[in-house]
From TrEMBL:
Domain of life assignment: Bacteria
Catalysed reactions, as listed in the record: 5-phospho-alpha-D-ribose 1-diphosphate + nicotinate + ATP + H2O = nicotinate beta-D-ribonucleotide + ADP + phosphate + diphosphate
Role of this protein: Catalyzes the first step in the biosynthesis of NAD from nicotinic acid, the ATP-dependent synthesis of beta-nicotinate D-ribonucleotide from nicotinate and 5-phospho-D-ribose 1-phosphate.
Keywords linked to the UniProt accession: Glycosyltransferase, Ligase, Phosphoprotein, Pyridine nucleotide biosynthesis, Transferase
Family under the similarity heading: Belongs to the NAPRTase family.
A single GO cellular-component term on record: cytosol
Name of the protein: Nicotinate phosphoribosyltransferase
BP-aspect Gene Ontology terms: NAD+ biosynthetic process via the salvage pathway
Amino acid sequence: MLDYSPALMTDMYEYTMLDAALRDGTADRRCVFEVYTRHLPEGRRYGVAAGAGRILEALRDFHLSDEDLRFLADRKVVSPQTVKWLEHYRFSGSIKGYREGEMFFPNSPILQVEGTFGECTLLETLILSILNYDSAVASAASRMVSAAKDRPCMDMGGRRTNEWAAVAAARAAVVGGFQGTANLLAAQLYGLKAIGTAAHCFTLVHDSERQAFESQIAALGRNTTLLVDTYNIEEAVRTAVEVAGPQLGGVRIDSGDLASLAQRVRNQLDALGATGTKITVTNDLDEYAIAALQTAPVDSYGVGTMLVTGSGAPTCAMVYKLTEREGADGTMVPVMKKSKDKATVPGRKLAFRSYEYNLADAEHVISGSEEALAAYRPQEGWKDLLVEYVDHGQADPQWTGHEAIARAHAYRAQALAELPITAQSLMKGDPVIPTETEVL
């Protein structure tokens, strides 16, 4: 992988604020920052939180090398005194938030970061870039998985986005319910299932389609999936079964009217005795196209562009706002913006979800002082939505790695099933449950 510092994956004003705060003495004030979104993408009923595990991975390496420090000094981004402070930077604060795979809504406190102003402000851009993108992909993936019913969806979006975004998207897609990815680096880093066989160029480089199929089967076995729409689909399916026999694993269709083609191919395969051969479809799918294929004999979907672009919502519009800070006398003071249409709710937060007849009916955000929240008792049956990610600089390892992704994948399905069924509708509408905020 490239050798770079996550500590420079940020906006310059994080460092200039730090520099000024170190000069005036406010850099050491205890603070609480909160990540939330004011609204879901238009018409969406819910969002899926993703990216916290990647934030924890980035925190491990969030420090500046000598070369990084020279860069900041040479560009006069910060003063020599701040360079000295940065030499020893390690995040020593605490982070809690929604677990990956959890549903979120407007004003849900998705992540809360507590520490000194100096150490917390440097994390803003990195945290937002990870959460905004990963949650957008996971949210789109979840809608696609709902549309697919029990048929697996696979990530094939690596070539449709930035090379590093492709790795993040593969991970987020699995959190959102996908079963695997074509991206080998993502598969290696996170232990994801890797999928893929051959493209049209493999057929075209051979003198005949039959030779291409024979070559692929010789290399990958009869259980491979053959791409059958390079020339004529009916002829390709016939040739595929002749070459592989009825044990052929699958065929893939990447163009045309996918529903009618899948039906014809299914009937043809069955007539040829290949009743167990699976049909995969690709070709610029989104949740609406997948929903339109529900009655077609399709066994799995490969999704690219619309997955890695959030299916029209490539960001969740999350923000990182200061909600509480230490005053000059050492006491913690709730703070808020009063800007038009951008006002914030002061204070640190608790978050719960209430249920009626085993279905979620509201999100409850409770705001107040540390003491008031410690004394607060939720109503019986409310689910606590916040988990501890980092405790005084020590990250909990259960939230990173392959097993964490697998748990998030399973949790998303459970959390979605707890929402009213209208959450799975692709029709535009309001968030499926309201968010009720109480300030203690």
